[in-house]
Amino acid sequence: MKAQQFVVIGLGRFGAGLALELMAMGYEVLGIDHNEERVEEMTDKLTHAVMADATDEGVMRSLGVRNLDCGIVAIGDNMERSILTAILLKELGVKMVVAKAISILHGRALEKLGVDRVIFPERDMGVRVAHQLVTPHLVDYIELSKEYKIVELTVPSCMDGKSLAEINPRAKYGCSIIALNRAGGVIVAPTAHDYLYAGDIMVVIGSNESIDRFEEDAMNSGETEA
Ligand code: ATP
Fold it and tell me: What's the whole-model pTM score?
């Protein structure tokens, strides 16, 4: 079942950013922080924002946290509080518990406690930025395995007005364009007769090697021949 109601514990930059994005997507968000200023800042922006110590079981029970679908522990710096809060959410029966970790050890501890998803925002952002720095057209990527990935690439001007048949990345490089995203909407599973326009976002799936060759060869040189 998809989560509908979230509790975000810790309204620092990470927690606040996450909570506001969930609100923007139309979900209900209870924000909890023991810092009064942070709570005040979010009062009008979240469904509820409450000043409380998230490690206090009585308070968390009275807030009805157990009835929410997903709890996000966005406390990083204080490992003890992060771990105590995660344990409490699990014990209260929150269906899905996600926690931010600031070190490998912290992450391992959270996993051992049964946290459903551990995230490393700083590390993951560092990895993401590294990829974007060496791949100029890269918008985003998902690592499917050590060998395969899905990437979103901006269509460069050298491909403007060309059909997929002309570019033909599957035959030339071994990777496939599975969707095109442009102002007019998304084309899922485009055919050989669809055209690319500079600034479109193309979603490409394939091995790391095939996508890297496609990116380096076809997208940077203006040449589409392998
Ligand atoms: P960020 O890196 O997201 O900006 P930060 O550096 O401000 O966070 P963290 O220690 O990661 O600080 O804490 C995030 C938030 O969690 C802070 O706003 C802090 O007040 C809150 N927080 C920490 N411990 C608790 C607790 N036991 N109960 C409620 N809120 C807490």
Answer: 0.77
